[in-house]
Design a protein that fits this description.
single chain; 497 residues; alpha+beta; Cathepsin B, Chain A; 7-stranded antiparallel sheet; 5-stranded mixed sheet; 8 helices; elongated; UFSP1/2_DUB_cat; deUFMylase activity; ubl conjugation pathway
Length: 497
């Protein structure tokens, strides 16, 4: 159990940590010494009496406007040891800004969660400003100094964008949060970037940028500094990610520390619990919170990760009666997007048809038609657009599907991707199974693309458009038809990081 905490993202623009020095050509040792001294000078600036730390609430979700707090370097306490810092009571008002607790920026409309998580933490944004003019009563104009070069020289510019993420309990005073958490974090990150820059100081202009990741099985975010001169798919960057996966005990078959996986700590409304994905009006993860399946003693195996719910009549497009497999494919592709395996847009019906024509599976007349597609066509499209391979399971009758529950459970445990089920003229998306291995009793978690209503989660769940289905329900009615054969498309998770 942990106390409610705050996340303190500190962003330092490159202009603050730009290192400009005149270096003599072919004197690498000179360049390195000057670079190291420049880094030490920047570190000293963090404790400069004239440095300014502006502390402000990052979220706009609260109705209460919390004014930013200005802390100056001369007001900070660098002597008190962290264990000796007295935590402050949020209820006690203090007019001295530097003695305000971090709780001053907490949202009053948030209930205290039992466990810490990035989603439940309040975010306090801290910006670092340097007062170069100090408090001089005289007006000072910018000055330019001229240093004549006696031999051939070059200008070396190194820009570092620092972004540090710290934890602070609510009661810690702001001045101690800055002096004991923020500044040491900045120093550590700058020293890390110094080590990454030194080997190629004179041959490459570094573009280092830190990113923060919330990873499975790790209680706190991890920060990784990436060299942006390398693309994410270049082998050097891939090797770095593989090494990090190994060190952190992460699986090697899914991207977890790509830039797209990084935490978004930008200013935004964090109070919303909307089920829609940012930039999309589609519902996401509609199966969460649905009633149990009714299988006694069963083991539930579910899709791993998020997906979007695609169904009939979305986007003003009438595909009622023929587009269910297209919609199931769109849901599957949305899963690969949301897990950051691909950044392509979810294709339209026409784009799906175009892909099948491009590979020679269909004639050009297929484009713009209302023809059905099945599991095999879906596998072709996934291979062409995403490079994803698929496994196909065939059953001669819907009555045989319960015999595949163990295999389907293994798929969700190991692969975790949504499954398309096609039988007769109907297609469904399978999100999980509940299977009792001893009795053979099982249920299928079905996401039905035949839904034509509004995107109302309660209406969808209460209407049975997303829910557990048994092969034969309590009234003796079969969900899967006994006189139809079924193909199940099991997309395989790409082996990539």
């Amino acid at each position: 159990m942990r106390r409610r905490s705050e996340l303190l993202p500190i962003q330092i623009p490159g202009t603050f940590v730009s290192l400009y020095r005149r270096l003599r050509v072919r004197r690498a040792s000179n360049a390195e010494n000057i670079f190291l001294r420049a880094v030490e000078a920047v570190i000293a600036k963090f404790k400069d009496p004239n440095v300014v730390y502006m502390v402000e609430a990052s979220s706009k979700a609260s109705s209460d406007v919390v004014q930013p707090v200005i802390l100056r370097g001369e007001e900070l306490d660098f002597d008190t040891a962290l264990p000796n810092i007295e935590l402050l009571d949020k209820a006690v008002h203090n007019s001295d800004q530097k003695l305000l607790p971090c709780a001053h920026f907490c949202l009053k409309n948030k209930s205290t969660p039992e466990l810490f998580s990035v989603e439940n933490a309040d975010i306090i944004q801290i910006s670092v400003l340097l007062n170069r003019s100090e408090k001089s009563p005289k007006c000072k104009a910018p000055a330019v100094e001229y240093f004549p070069a006696m031999e051939e020289t070059r200008l070396l510019i190194v820009d570092f964008n620092l972004e540090v993420l710290c934890y602070a309990v609510q009661g810690i005073p702001l001045m101690h949060a800055v002096s004991k958490l923020v500044i040491p974090g900045l120093v550590d990150q700058l020293n890390l970037m110094k080590k990454m820059t030194l080997p190629n100081l004179l041959t490459q202009h570094p573009q280092l940028h830190p990113y923060h990741f919330s990873l499975p099985g790790i209680a706190h975010p991890i920060t990784v500094a990436y060299e942006l001169n390398y693309g994410e798919t270049e082998m050097k960057q891939v090797d770095i990610r593989r090494s990090l996966h190994l060190r952190l005990g992460l699986p090697f078959d899914r991207p977890l520390i790509r830039i797209a996986n990084a935490l978004d700590l930008s200013t935004k409304d964090r109070s919303s619990n909307s089920s829609t994905r940012r930039g999309s009006s589609l519902l996401k993860d509609v199966h969460i919170g649905i009633p149990s399946s009714g299988v006694s003693g069963g083991s539930v195996s579910l899709v791993q990760g998020s997906y979007e719910y695609y169904h009939y009549l979305q986007d003003g497009f009438d595909d009622s009666g023929w587009g269910c497999a297209y919609r199931s494919l769109q849901t599957i592709i949305s899963w690969f997007r949301l897990q950051h395996y691909s950044s392509i847009d979810v294709p339209s019906h026409r784009e799906i048809q175009q892909s099948l024509v491009d590979i020679g599976d269909k004639d050009p007349s297929f484009i713009g038609s209302r023809e059905w597609i099945g599991a095999i066509e879906l596998s072709f499209v996934l291979d062409k657009l995403l490079g994803v391979s698929c496994k196909v399971i065939n059953v001669r009758s819907g009555s045989e599907l319960p015999e595949k529950c163990r295999e389907l459970a293994m798929h969700f445990e190991n692969q975790g991707t949504p499954i398309m089920i096609g039988g007769g003229v109907l297609a469904y998306t399978l999100l999980g199974v509940d299977y009792n291995e001893a009795t053979g009793d099982c249920a299928f978690l079905i996401l039905d693309p035949h839904y034509t209503g509004t995107d109302d989660p309660k209406k969808i769940v209460n209407g049975g458009w997303c829910g557990w289905k048994k092969s034969i329900d309590s009234r003796g009615k079969s969900f899967f038809l006994h006189d139809k054969f079924y193909n199940l498309l099991l997309p395989q998770r790409p082996n990539m990081v």
